[in-house]
Amino acid sequence: MASKEVKQLIKAIEKQGFRVRPTTKGHYQVYKGDAFVTVLPGTPSDHRSLKNSLTYLRRAGFQKPR
Question: What tens digit of pLDDT does each residue of 42-51 get?
Answer without folding.
Answer: 877 777 888 9
